[in-house]
Specification:
Elements: E1 4-8, H1 10-28, H2 33-36, E2 45-50, E3 56-62, E4 68-73, H3 80-96, E5 101-107, H4 111-116, E6 120-128, E7 131-139
Antiparallel strand pairs: 1-2, 2-3, 3-4, 5-7, 6-7
Length: 152
């Protein structure tokens, strides 16, 4: 399967980004809509991943601070190659903007997985929308795209 990656901004792609993230986070994972959509959306760089039929199947964003997040992939499309394409596009944006480090906020069960990708825990565990999370950071040069797959 081939994918098309589009770098988009919030204003031009808001409807498409919102639709994908609502399907995954609001309806499937039951994250409150007011938590899922925040003021960082308008300033972040977003990517859309389209399948070979041209349908939007995934999205993610990176903030000016280098935080990768809001990775939303439709349920039937959660395959390693989808995540690899998303992370590759987000890391390319980070490199273009001169970032040295990227970070993620993961659920506790994802900590070991992200450590295998080169991330390290930063700060204490915290609660977000009723879910315990850990912030993780990684040098762009140490991030391993070959191992990226679905964890939430």
């Amino acid at each position: 399967m081939t994918f098309t990656v589009q770098n988009v901004d919030w204003m031009s792609a808001k409807d498409k980004l919102t639709k994908l993230r609502e399907k995954v986070f609001v309806y499937e994972w039951r994250i409150p809509k007011d938590v899922e959509f925040d003021r960082q959306d308008s300033a972040a760089c977003h990517v859309l991943l389209l399948d070979d039929a041209g349908l939007e199947i995934a999205t993610g964003r990176i903030t000016a601070e280098g935080e990768i997040g809001r990775i939303a992939v439709l349920n039937n499309c959660r395959k390693p190659e989808v995540y690899q394409q998303l992370f590759a596009a987000l890391l390319a944006i980070a490199e273009q903007q001169g970032m040295q480090t990227v970070s993620v906020q993961c659920e506790l069960e994802g900590v070991n997985y992200y450590q295998q990708q080169g991330f390290r825990p930063v700060g204490a565990v915290y609660m977000d929308a009723g879910i315990p999370r850990q912030r993780m950071a990684c040098s762009i040069k140490k991030f391993s795209l070959t191992k990226v797959e679905f964890t939430h």
